[in-house]
C-alpha cells in the first residue's frame, strides 16, 4: 500500500504533463495579481470594489462545493486508515512466521547437538604427549622422504628356509586295513576350525582310521552355518592327502543310524585334555575305535599338543595346513579383488598370492610391475580390541568410570564363570595387569608402535578383525596419524560383499588373505589364531621377504610407562629394538605351534 502511494505521487508529479502545467500556471497568475495590486494601490475606490467582488465570488464557490470537499477529505482519511490497518496485519503475520521459523530452527539445532553428544563419544587419548611427538616425527620424515627399514626382513637367514612339507617320504604309504571311522565336529571360528581339521588329520593317521570330512558346529557367537565345502575345496583336500590317509565325505550307510553317544563313542573336550599327547589317544580313543568302529570328536579345540609327536605326524599337519586347505573359488576371487584394490596396481605374483588366490591374479608384463612396484605396498594390521576381549582382560583403557561400568556389566552377562572366579580370589589390579603385558593394545598404542617403527603417515593400512570397542572415539588417535585406513567393507561394494553376509567365517577368510599377502603384517596380540596362522603362512611361503611385526606387550608397556619423560628418539630406538629381536630367525622351539613357527625339519628345508 505504501509502495502504491509513492508510485502514485511519482506518477502524478513526474508523468502527468497537465499537472505540471497547472502548477506553473498557478504561480504565473499569482505574480500577475501582485503587479495588478501595485498598479491599483492609489485607486482605492476601484480596488475596494474589485476586492469585494472577488471575495464574494470566492465565498459563493466555497459554499457551493463544501460537501464535495468534505466527502473528499473523509474518503482520503478512510484510505489512510485502511492502508495502516493492512500494513499492521501483514507485519504481524511476517513477524509471527519469522519467530516460528527461528524457534523451529533453534529447536532442531538443539536436538541435533543433543543427538551428537549422545551418539558420539569424545576421542579417548591415553598418551597425548607421545601422540604429538609422533605427529611431528611423521611430518619430518615425510619432508625428508625417509624410509622405514621394516618393509623388509632384517635377517638374511630368513630366506634360507623353503617349503617342503608336501615332499614324498620314501617307502611310506597308507597302512593296511582301517581301524574305523573318525568324525570331527569342530567349534570356534575359521582359524580354530582350521587347526582342528589338521589335528584331526594327524590323529586319523596316528590311529590308522578313515577320516570323515570334518563338520563345523554352529556357534551362537559366530552365527555362521558354513560347512567345510563352503570355505575349502573338498576334492582338492582329499586328493592332496590321499597318499597319507583315507578321507571320505560321509559315513557309510550302515553307520548313519547308529547312536554314537549311546555306544560310548562320543568324545568331548572334557574327555581329552588340552594339548593332549599321542599316548592319550592311543590309550583312551583307540580301544573305542576298534570296538565300535567309530568315534566322534565333539568340539576338538586344541586337543593335540605339538610335542612330543612323531616327525611324520608333524609333517602331515604342515602339509594339511599349508598345502591341502585351499579356499573355494568364490573366496579366492573376492580376496584377489580386495588385494588388487588396496595395492592400487597389479603387482608381481608372489608364492603367497598363488597359494591363496589361485588363478584370480592376472599376469602382466614385468615392465608394468616395475613401474608400479614402488606404490603397491601395504601393511596389514590385526588389531585385537573387540569388546569381549577388552572386557575379559579386566584392564582399564582410559575411559574412566563409564568405561569401567560398561565392561563390568559385559563381564557379568557374558563371562559368569570368570565373575565367580574373581569373587573367590584376589584379582590383579589393572595397573599390574598392564605391567605384565596382559592388556590388549589399544588403537592408540598400535599407532604409536607403527610410528616408532618409522612407517609414514601416508602408509596404506588394511585393518583386519571385528568391530573395535569404542568405535570412532577409540580409532581417532590412530586415524589422526594414519588416515589411509581401509577394511574389506570399504574396499568391496555392497553387492560384492553380499554373498558373504551372515557368514562370518567366510568374511574372516578374506581377512586372512589380506593379512597373509600383505607386504608387512603387524599384530597386536600374537596369541590370536588369525595372527598365528597368517604369520606362519607368511613364514612358510614368504621366501624371507614377508616380515611379521610381533610386539612384546610387556616390554612395550614398560616403554609406554615413561610417557611423561621419554623423548621420541629414545622411544623409536627401544620400539625398533623390541621388534627386531622378535624377528630373529629361530628354529621352532619345543612345544611351540607348528602352524605359527613352521621353521623346523618336519615342515621346511634349509637351502645352502
From TrEMBL:
The chain crosses the membrane at residues 68-90. InterPro entries: FucosylTrfase_pln, GDP-Fuc_O-FucTrfase, GT106_glycosyltransferase. The keyword Cell membrane does not apply. It is found in: Membrane. It is a single-pass type II membrane protein. Pfam families: O-FucT. Its main location: membrane. The keyword Glycoprotein applies. It comes from the Eukaryota. Pathway: Glycan metabolism. Keywords: Carbohydrate metabolism, Fucose metabolism, Glycoprotein, Glycosyltransferase, Membrane, Transferase, Transmembrane, Transmembrane helix. Belongs to the glycosyltransferase GT106 family. This is O-fucosyltransferase family protein. It comes from Xanthoceras sorbifolium.
Amino acid at each position: 500500500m505504501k509502495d502504491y502511494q509513492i508510485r502514485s505521487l511519482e506518477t502524478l508529479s513526474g508523468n502527468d504533463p497537465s499537472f505540471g502545467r497547472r502548477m506553473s500556471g498557478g504561480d504565473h497568475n499569482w505574480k500577475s495579481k501582485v503587479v495588478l495590486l501595485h498598479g491599483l494601490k492609489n485607486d482605492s475606490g476601484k480596488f475596494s470594489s474589485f476586492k469585494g467582488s472577488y471575495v464574494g465570488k470566492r465565498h459563493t464557490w466555497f459554499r457551493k462545493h463544501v460537501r464535495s470537499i468534505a466527502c473528499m477529505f473523509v474518503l482520503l482519511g478512510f484510505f489512510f486508515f485502511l492502508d495502516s490497518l493492512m500494513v499492521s496485519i501483514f507485519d504481524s503475520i511476517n513477524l509471527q512466521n519469522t519467530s516460528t521459523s527461528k524457534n523451529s530452527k533453534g529447536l532442531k539445532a538443539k536436538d541435533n547437538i543433543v543427538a551428537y553428544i549422545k551418539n558420539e563419544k569424545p576421542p579417548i587419548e591415553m598418551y597425548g604427549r607421545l601422540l604429538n611427538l609422533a605427529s611431528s616425527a611423521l611430518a619430518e620424515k615425510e619432508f625428508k622422504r625417509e624410509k622405514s627399514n621394516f618393509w623388509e626382513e632384517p635377517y638374511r637367514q630368513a630366506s634360507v628356509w623353503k617349503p617342503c612339507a608336501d615332499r614324498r617320504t620314501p617307502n611310506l604309504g597308507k597302512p593296511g586295513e582301517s581301524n574305523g571311522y573318525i568324525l570331527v565336529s569342530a567349534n570356534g571360528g575359521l582359524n580354530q576350525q582350521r587347526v582342528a581339521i589338521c589335528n584331526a588329520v594327524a590323529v586319523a593317521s596316528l590311529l590308522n582310521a578313515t577320516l570323515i570330512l570334518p563338520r563345523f558346529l554352529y556357534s551362537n557367537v559366530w552365527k555362521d552355518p558354513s560347512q567345510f565345502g563352503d570355505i575349502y575345496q573338498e576334492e582338492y583336500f582329499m586328493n592332496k592327502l590321499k597318499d597319507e590317509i583315507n578321507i571320505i565325505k560321509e559315513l557309510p550307510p550302515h553307520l548313519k543310524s547308529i547312536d554314537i553317544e549311546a555306544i560310548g563313542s562320543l568324545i568331548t573336550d572334557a574327555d581329552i585334555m588340552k594339548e593332549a599327547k599321542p599316548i592319550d589317544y592311543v590309550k583312551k580313543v583307540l580301544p573305542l575305535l576298534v570296538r565300535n568302529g567309530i568315534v566322534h570328536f565333539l568340539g576338538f579345540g586344541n586337543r593335540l599338543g605339538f610335542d612330543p609327536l612323531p616327525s611324520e605326524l608333524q609333517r602331515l599337519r604342515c602339509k594339511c595346513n599349508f598345502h591341502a586347505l585351499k579356499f573355494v573359488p568364490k573366496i579366492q576371487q573376492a580376496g584377489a579383488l580386495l588385494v588388487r584394490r588396496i595395492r592400487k596396481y597389479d603387482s608381481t605374483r608372489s608364492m603367497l598370492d598363488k597359494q591363496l588366490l589361485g588363478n584370480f591374479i592376472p599376469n602382466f608384463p614385468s615392465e608394468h610391475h616395475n613401474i608400479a612396484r614402488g606404490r603397491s605396498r601395504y601393511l596389514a594390521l590385526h588389531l585385537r580390541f573387540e569388546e569381549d576381549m577388552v572386557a575379559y582382560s579386566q584392564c582399564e583403557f582410559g575411559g574412566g568410570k563409564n568405561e569401567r561400568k560398561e565392561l563390568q556389566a559385559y563381564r557379568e552377562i557374558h563371562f559368569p564363570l570368570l565373575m565367580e572366579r574373581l569373587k573367590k580370589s584376589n584379582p590383579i589390579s589393572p595397573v599390574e595387569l598392564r605391567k605384565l603385558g596382559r592388556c590388549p593394545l589399544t588403537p592408540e598404542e598400535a599407532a604409536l608402535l607403527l610410528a616408532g617403527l618409522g612407517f609414514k603417515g601416508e602408509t596404506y593400512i588394511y585393518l583386519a578383525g571385528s568391530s573395535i570397542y569404542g568405535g570412532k572415539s577409540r580409532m581417532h588417535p590412530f586415524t589422526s596419524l594414519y588416515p589411509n585406513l581401509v577394511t574389506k567393507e570399504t574396499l568391496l561394494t555392497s553387492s560384492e560383499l553380499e554373498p558373504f553376509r551372515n557368514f562370518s567365517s567366510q568374511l574372516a577368510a578374506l581377512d586372512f588373505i589380506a593379512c597373509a599377502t600383505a607386504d608387512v603384517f603387524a599384530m597386536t596380540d600374537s596369541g590370536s589364531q588369525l595372527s598365528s596362522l597368517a604369520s606362519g603362512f607368511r613364514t612358510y611361503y614368504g621366501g624371507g621377504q614377508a616380515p611379521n611385526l610381533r610386539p612384546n606387550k610387556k616390554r612395550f608397556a614398560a616403554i609406554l610407562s615413561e610417557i611423561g619423560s621419554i623423548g621420541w628418539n629414545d622411544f623409536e630406538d627401544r620400539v625398533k629394538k623390541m621388534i627386531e629381536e622378535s624377528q630373529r630367525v629361530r628354529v621352532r622351539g619345543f612345544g611351540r605351534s607348528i602352524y605359527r613357527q613352521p621353521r623346523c625339519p618336519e615342515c621346511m628345508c634349509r637351502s645352502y
